[in-house]
Amino acid sequence: MFKKALRPRPMDLPNGTANATGGHDVDLSYAVMFQLRTAILLLIVIMAVLGNLLVIVSVMRHR
Predict the structure, then answer these.
(1) What pLDDT score was predicted for residue 25?
(2) What is the pTM of this model?
(3) For a Cys-Cys bond, which of 16, 34, 47, 52 suits 10, CB 3.0-4.6 Å?
(4) Quick one: average pLDDT of 29-37?
(5) 23 torsion bin: left (phi>0), alpha (psi -120 to 50), beta (else)
(6) Contact of 10 with 26, CB cutoff 8 Å
(7) Angle at 35 between CA 32 and CA 41, to 5 degrees
(8) Cβ atoms within 10 Å of 26's Cβ, excluding its own
(9) DSSP 15-55
(10) Distance from C-alpha of 22 to C-alpha of 7, rounded to nearest angstrom
């Protein structure tokens, strides 16, 4: 979905030529980077939620 907005694939360019594998290594690198960014973002969100829950539980136990 975001691939074309970031960088066009060689086969999408008007006069571009694809490599011997048909340009699939470009798609693979975008897929890997997308999955890596998604995993890191999800990890940050999950850790933030768990940190907030820890603060909430600590305040409730202290009172």
Answers:
(1) 73
(2) 0.56
(3) 16
(4) 94
(5) left
(6) yes
(7) 140
(8) 19
(9) T----TT-SHHHHHHHHHHHHHHHHHHHHHHHHHHHHHHHH
(10) 17
| Contact partners, residue 58, CB within 8 Å, separation at least 6 | none
Q: Which long-range contacts (CB under 8 A, 24 or more apart) does 20-25 make?
A: none
- The pLDDT mean for the chain works out to 80
Q: How far is CA 29 from CA 14, 38, 42, 50, in A?
A: 22, 14, 20, 31
Report residue 50 as tokens: 């768990």
Q: How many residues does the chain have?
A: 63
Break the chain into its structural domains and give their ranges: 24-63
Average pLDDT score over residue span 30-58: 97
